[in-house]
What we know:
InterPro entries: Metallo-B-lactamas (IPR001279), Mito_Persulfide_Diox (IPR051682), POD-like_MBL-fold (IPR044528), Rhodanese-like_dom (IPR001763), Rhodanese-like_dom_sf (IPR036873), RibonucZ/Hydroxyglut_hydro (IPR036866)
CATH class of the largest domain: Alpha Beta
Number of helices: 16
Organism: Formosa sediminum
Strand order of the largest sheet: 1-2-3-4-5-6
Pfam family, one: Rhodanese
GO molecular function: hydrolase activity; metal ion binding; sulfur dioxygenase activity
Helix content: 25-40%
Number of strands: 24
Mean pLDDT: 94
CATH topology of the largest domain: Metallo-beta-lactamase, Chain A
CATH architecture of the largest domain: 4-Layer Sandwich
CATH superfamily of the largest domain: Ribonuclease Z/Hydroxyacylglutathione hydrolase-like
Largest sheet: 6 strands, mixed
Shape: globular
Structural class: alpha/beta
Distance between the termini: 52 Å
Domain Rhodanese: 268-359, 373-461
Amino acid sequence: MKVDQIYTGCLAQGAYYIESNGEVAIIDPLREIEPYVNRAEKEGAKIKYIFETHFHADFVSGHVTLSERTGAPIIYGPTANPSFKAIIATDGQEFKLGDVIIKVLHTPGHTMESTTFLLKNESGKDYAIFSGDTLFLGDVGRPDLAQKSDITQDDLAGFLYDSLRTKIMPLADDVIVYPGHGAGSACGKNMMKETVDTLGNQKKMNYALRQDMTKAEFVKEVTDGLTPPPQYFPLNVKMNKEGYDNIDTIIEKGTKALNPEEFETIANAVEALVLDVRHQNDFIKGHIPRSIFIGLQGGFAPWVGALIKDVKQPILLITDPGMEEEAVIRLSRVGFDNTLGYLAGGFEAWKSAGKEFDTISSISAEVFKTRLETENVEVFDVRKDAEYTSEHIENAKNASLEFINDYLSEIPKDTPFYVHCAGGYRSVIAASILKSRGYHNLIDVAGGMKAIREAGIPLTNFVCPSTLKNK
Length: 471
């Protein structure tokens, strides 16, 4: 028996490859299926089952395409209602895979169809659980994604409490936990950085598995501090339930090379969003006016999903040479399938064609420190609320990137202001959005909070009265 976790850091997502005696099961595959198909072929094995722990909200799974390619059935737990052909398993149903067994444990709570898959080894002993978004390391799945209006987040949290205590916690301490996500995912609040653990350790470390916790206490703790889910979540759920275009078609359309004239014509004709995925330092030095920066080298796909409201939005790409297909694939992972092409030759081709371009004013933390000491400056910290509360520049205002459009009325258009984040990635995203909205008086603090600390700028950990309130 082989169990491999295929972890994708950009999405903080774990897919799983299980092989026994020439038969393979894939759990929660990513949309690009070639790695799974190629792996099985290399090992002379056949993909027999595709298991889905639930209808994912934060990414588009590869289950439909993988099933079409291999003929393997898609398996959901009870109450799932996909539009395509699938096996809707009963609670406790078992599926034989080579010399091992995968057992269905219906664990509603994150969503009503959420299911944990229990792997029994060749001896019939409970070996591992693939818990999807039911149980993370250090946390559990958020219970506020119900697709039916008559089910509240408190209802789901109550179901999750029961699922954990009747299906998960009775299992032996040596059972391995393979979660659907790790730290950085928007599907939970406070996950550990590790991606594999034992259930016994989780019983000690995970607040949600406290033996003496009442249901009321659980509901309160699980629902406390939940931020609004990204707007693309329901759109991804819809795609995962109803199906989607083959990724090969998406790649072919999205990797069409366009010269500057063609690029500009299409951008204007269909009101395409020009998305620049280069490094933030390159974007600062020069970019197409009103283009939006979200770099591939950061948390690309989640930020695309959080900041671009409509997955059907037409997109044109500015990439480094050779990164066009990578960008299209990573957009498709979160359901953004309407990429129309990329600028051949990149930004340099745009400049060489004599087209207008823009830049971002950026200063070092040392220069910023001098200005803080000698001028009356206005500072906007675009990190998350919790980061800001933990430590921030005195009198800086918090304008979290994921809600940046809600703060526009608070940001000056006529006087200079400064933006920073933790390391320089998010502040340039924020700067690009603000410039596209007509705010050209901003100044980026290069290196973010890391550079600010190193420059010795005084910090405070108290929420000051100037903190902006989420609209």
